[in-house]
Amino acid sequence: MRKRKMMNVCVCLIAFAVLLPLSACSPKQEVQRNDGEEAAGIPVTFLINPATNLSENQELAEAFNEEYEGEYYVDVEWLTESASGYREKLKQWNILDEMPAVITDAGFDYDFYTLLTENKRLVNLRPYMDAIPQWKAAVEPEILDACTEESGDIYLAPLGSGIQSYAGIIYNKELLRQAGYETFPKTWEAFWDCLDALQAKGITPLSLHGYGSYWVPMLFATSYLYGTQEGQAFLDQDFPDSYQTPEMADMMEMLDRMYGYTYADAVEIDYDEAEERFCSWEAAIFANGYWMIQEMPDNVKENMGFAPFPGNILMNSPRMSAWALTAGYDAKVTDGAAKLLAFRVELDARNSEKLRNKEGVSALECSYIDAVESVSTIMPNYQMKWEQEIQNDFFTERLPGYLDGEIDTGTLLKEMDERLEQIRAKK
Amino acid sequence: MKTGSRESGTGKAGYRKYFFGIRKKAVVSITVIFGIIFFLTYLGINKIVKDNTREFLTDQYSYLNDKVLGSFRNTYDELNSLTADFVTNDYVQKTLTNQTVTASDRDMMERTLSYYNKSFLDSYLVIDNKGNQYSQKGIRLDMEKFRKSAIYQSLGDEYSKTKILWTRDVIFGTNEMSFFAVRYIREMNSVHDAGVLILKLNERVMDAVRESAENEELAYFIVNSDKEICYKIIPDGMDESWHQELNERLWNPDETESKSLKNGIFSSSTDEKTMFTVITYAPGSVTNQVIREIQLVMGLIFGLMFVLTVAGVAFFTKRLTSPIEYLSSTMRDFDDSKLDERISLDTNTELDFIGHAYNKMIEKVKSLMNDVMKKEKELKDSEMQTMLYQIRPHFLYNTLDTIYMLARIQKEETIMKMTQSLSRFLRINLSNGRESIEVSQELEHVSSYLEIQKIRNTDLFEYEASAEPGTEKLFVTKMILQPIVENSIKHGFRDIYSGGMIWIRAYCEDGYLCFSVENNGTPVLPDALEKLNRMEQVSMDEMDMLIEKRQGGFGICNVVKRLRLKYNDQIRFYYVAKSAGTECVIKIRLEELEH
């Protein structure tokens, strides 16, 4: 009995000795949490306003990352650059095949947009919009129509409504009050009087710039242009064949007049500098869209008011807010990028509702919504109507001379047409 | 630990004596078990070590490979940056939109491009979307042939990514295999046909890769998607077997994951952007060297552990088995002459109890042997006595009968009576050698004795002897009453000269056969009473010391001893001192009596 017991012990010992190393030889059972696939990063470049160091898209990025945590995340490259500088970079990234998955300002430059679509550089969003019905439903039909190609393809993803896309006049209430104005002038005559009154008080009336894009002065000028029926007809044209029209001549002279109410070096400074000076109370009046209000610090906002251009005009173009998806990324990234666009529309709808109801918004935003609700005329964005080379290269090259009086209006417009001819020839 | 001495053997016999029994079994068994354990453990660990070493080396070479791949990627990034500079160059861009190219434009552009001076850049060629060609070497290509060339075809459907090629130089005329970087040149602003940029690279393009290949024992290869080796670093002295290895294993997916270290380790990573693969090859001579060193150290450690284990087992089993061997030899050598030898063990183990138990057993054996010897002697004496008794009675009885006849003739009543009593006394005394007699015979025997005493001590006492009916025929050991009545006369009647009375009774009571011998003489003294009554309780040896034999104690002592031996201590024997006289009581359990 005892012998048998001893034998059992020996057998157990040998078995243990055999199994110990063998168990160590068995394949490693790695303890690994199965968290599914890794979250896909969606490369995006968003602009930071150099004047305020804020971005209108920060809230979007944070909200999306929270909503899709573990599945997707917006991999943002924050770029401190002007809007025009960004659009130039976009073109460069395209020819280097380095565009982010989502691009903003996709509908600004018609030629570039055409280049992108013809070279299949953008993703047709229609299947994605069909797959996310609430996305399509949240976009107002006329905005969607404006972004839909004749073939039915959709390459531009605009916001659902235009409520956050209007541009008008932003003014410093306190500085206008010092000049005797409690509200912003509603006519062009009163506008000029206001500028005189401000100047009389030693206040620079307008914060204009020149270098780069002439965006702010052109907003004033095109709203002035749109004040007449002929002007409206001209600006409503896509890529006019000639700029030598009386309305354009009138607008250019108005532009020239405005530069008499701004900084002496206005032609040399860029948009960011002009915005920074306006926010620092160096001038009383500026022009831009709601996106600038979003990026303003609260302490700046509290003394600002918003008003339509004289004649109760605001600027808005459905394609202005449009973003697009670039081709070449893998399916998961593209899928996430489409969800980002849909999420943007959803977030915009929530914010627009709050804005419309004036929930928790500043006095400046209240005056913005008042202006939007009472606007009588909406003008298109000239950037989408005229050749980019005219807006950027020609204006940069020739407007300083014109504003200095080196060339007259007729010559300027003639040169514009000549440049237009060259552009058409190159195409 | 104290143990007894042990003989140490010499030669084969000595060895056997030294190394046998429990110790031999323990050493052999444990050596075998540990040998198996160590061997299996060695095998297991060896396998684990081999696997882990392979895994470690694979990781290490993968890391080195990734480092080289990273360097290759950096080279690509640098080339990409260079081509980006070319394609975003204003003059290059203008070639796409300009309708005509002036000599000044061409000169300006070529001068600008020549500023992109890189040590690894051999030549460049820009072909615009109208087929115009710009290079520092005045190249003029046949565009139709160019569009069919591998360089142009390699661009495929790419929009404008930089492509790296390893192909024959049919562009710049050397016709040698070279690296090329090619890229479409796209117009930035509007839709235009694309131009093409071609950069021919010299061997210095791989300088960074060479620098990153730190381990000089390994071979490195850069292979394109067509599995052509574009660049290689082979260590000095490495044999040419890598060709075969590369072909057999690397391009065969089943063989790539070979677990054997014999043939070395391949690590490969493909750059997804360029589809170039970086391969690191560690030949078997390198990988085996590592594992051989580990195996040697491991073998030495396990060998040493085994030797130490065997030595340790031999040492400890010796300590454990020495007392057992001592016990064994002591027991084996035991005989009559060694009854006084004792085992002396102090091991603080169970063996100490065995030693003590053995000692006690030896003492018991000694005691039993003495008893046996004593009893044998007594038996011999008894047999002698019996034989003597068997001879004497005939002569004695005849003599007594003659005395009786003479007394009768001479009418000597007293002599007749005395002779008759003595004859009866002796006859019962001898009983033909029987030990037990009937109660009636015992009473007759004591009566004969008293009759003789009565004649000797005229008028000193009378007596009565009676037996309860039913007790007469019970057998009892003989001569138990005579010494008691002798003492009654001797001590009880020592102070009187007449009027003494002795009552002798036999009766049954409470399962005992009882005898009572009572006298009316002087009561027994308390001191003597106490000693007499202890006799039934003490050992036989002590009994002898208790009683003074010269005063008749011998007879009493003899009676008690015989009763205790005969009836296995199932008796009672005591005296009772009365106001006038003394009573002695003997009780024998009825179950013990002979039938």
Defining key terms:
heterodimer; A: 427 residues; alpha/beta; D-Maltodextrin-Binding Protein, domain 2; 2 domains; 10 strands; globular; B: 595 residues; alpha+beta; Heat Shock Protein 90; five-stranded mixed beta sheet; 17 helices; 16 strands
Can you tell me about this structure?
Chain B: Keywords: Coiled coil, Kinase, Membrane, Phosphoprotein, Transferase, Transmembrane, Transmembrane helix. Chain B: Its main location: membrane. Chain B: It holds the Pfam family His_kinase. Chain B: One of its GO terms (cellular component) is membrane. Chain B: This is HAMP domain-containing protein. The complex is a heterodimer of chains A (427) and B (595). In chain A, the strands form four sheets. A four-stranded mixed sheet of chain A has the order 5-6-4-7. Chain A has a two-stranded parallel ribbon with strand order 1-2. In chain A, strands 3-9 form a two-stranded antiparallel ribbon. In chain A, 51% of the residues lie in helices and 11% in strands. In chain A, helix 10 crosses helix 12 and helix 18 runs antiparallel to helix 19. Chain A is an alpha/beta fold and 427 residues long. Chain A folds into two domains: 163 residues, D-Maltodextrin-Binding Protein, domain 2 (3-Layer(aba) Sandwich); 202 residues, Periplasmic binding protein-like II (D-Maltodextrin-Binding Protein, domain 2), CATH 3.40.190. Chain B has a five-stranded antiparallel sheet with strand order 2-1-5-4-3. The N terminus of chain B is likely disordered. Chain B is an alpha+beta fold and 595 residues long. In chain B, helix 2 runs antiparallel to helix 10, helix 11 packs antiparallel against helix 12 and helix 12 packs antiparallel against helix 13. Helix content of chain B is 52%, strand content 17%. Chain B has two domains: 333 residues, no CATH class; 170 residues, Histidine kinase-like ATPase, C-terminal domain (Heat Shock Protein 90). Classes of the chains: A alpha/beta (427), B alpha+beta (595). Chains A and B meet through helix 1, helix 3 and helix 4 of A and helix 2 of B.
